[in-house]
C-alpha cells in the first residue's frame, strides 16, 4: 500500500467514525477533518468530482460548526423548566436514560422523590438534561442528579443552569454541592471548587 492509499483509507475511516458519534460537535469536527483529508487525496489523484464533493461537504461542516460554536455559551439557548419530582415527563426522561444515569451517577436513587426539586433543561423543544436536588439546610442545595444528554455534552448547559439561570438562588439557596463519587465530573470548568470529595458553588444572592 502506498502512502497515498493510506491517506485515502484514513480519510474514509475518519468519515465513518464521525458518523458513529452521538455528540454533534464531535461529529462535525471529525467529519470536517475527514473531508479535508479526502479532498487532498482526490486532488492528488485528479478525481475532480470527488474533490468538488468534499469541498462542498467541508463547507457545510464548517458552516454548522460556526453556528454550534456561536451558541455554545449563549444563555438564551437554554431554559431550566421547574417540574415536580413526581412529574410524569421527568419520570419518562429518567427511565429513558436510566443506563447512562447509573453510569455517571452510581449513587442516584430515582425512587427517592420526597423533598426534591426538579428541573428539566431544554433548548427550544429539545430536552437537554435534568437536574434534581434537595435542601440540605443552611441555604445549601445538594445536587442529586445532573444529567446531560450525549449530543449536548460538548456544549455548556451546566454553565447556564448553575451559574446564569438564577433558578436556585430564587429558591433561597446560597450554595450548591455535588454528591460524592460522580464519574467524570466537569464542575470545575463551570465555576465549582473542590470541597473534600465533593464540588461546591457559592451562588450570588437573588435580586
TrEMBL record:
The keyword Transmembrane applies. Keywords: Membrane, Transmembrane, Transmembrane helix. The chain crosses the membrane at residues 29-45. This is YgjV family protein. It comes from Allocatelliglobosispora scoriae.
Amino acid at each position: 500500500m502506498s502512502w497515498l492509499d493510506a491517506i485515502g483509507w484514513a480519510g474514509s475511516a475518519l468519515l465513518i467514525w464521525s458518523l458513529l458519534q452521538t455528540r454533534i460537535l464531535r461529529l462535525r469536527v471529525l467529519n470536517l477533518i475527514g473531508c479535508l483529508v479526502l479532498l487532498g487525496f482526490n486532488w492528488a489523484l485528479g478525481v475532480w468530482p470527488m474533490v468538488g464533493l468534499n469541498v462542498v461537504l467541508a463547507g457545510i461542516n464548517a458552516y454548522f460548526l460556526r453556528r454550534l460554536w456561536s451558541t455554545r455559551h449563549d444563555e438564551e439557548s437554554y431554559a431550566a423548566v421547574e417540574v415536580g419530582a413526581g412529574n410524569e415527563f421527568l419520570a419518562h426522561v429518567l427511565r429513558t436514560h436510566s443506563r447512562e444515569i447509573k453510569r455517571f451517577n452510581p449513587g442516584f436513587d430515582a425512587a427517592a422523590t420526597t423533598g426534591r426539586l426538579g428541573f428539566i433543561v431544554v433548548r427550544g423543544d429539545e430536552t437537554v438534561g435534568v437536574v434534581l436536588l434537595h435542601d440540605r439546610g443552611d441555604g445549601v442545595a445538594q445536587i442529586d442528579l445532573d444529567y446531560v444528554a450525549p449530543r449536548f455534552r460538548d456544549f455548556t448547559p451546566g454553565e447556564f443552569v448553575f451559574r446564569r439561570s438564577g433558578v436556585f438562588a430564587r429558591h433561597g439557596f446560597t450554595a450548591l454541592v455535588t454528591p460524592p463519587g460522580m464519574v467524570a465530573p466537569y464542575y470545575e470548568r463551570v465555576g465549582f471548587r473542590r470541597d473534600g470529595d465533593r464540588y461546591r458553588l457559592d451562588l450570588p444572592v437573588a435580586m
